[in-house]
Design a protein that fits this description.
The chain contains 2 helices and no strands. The chain is mainly alpha-helical.
């Protein structure tokens, strides 16, 4: 696939990437930490919910079998 790309297109692509990245609004450190903690908390909550469902269904199957 790379052989199909002309050498002149790569620098053009990299310039366009740089332009697009300059348009990005980057989060500051405080926002990053805050949002990371939210993601971790939601992940733990979902994992706990799934684990409790797994436990309940396992006990239900033990009762039925």
């Amino acid at each position: 696939m790379i052989s199909n790309i002309s050498a002149g297109r790569i620098p053009s692509f990299l310039r366009e990437v740089r332009i697009e990245l300059s348009k990005v609004t980057w989060l500051n450190r405080k926002q990053t930490v805050h949002l990371t903690l939210i993601v971790i908390a939601v992940s733990v909550a979902v994992a706990s919910f799934i684990a409790s469902l797994d436990f309940a269904f396992t006990k239900l199957m033990e009762i039925l079998i």
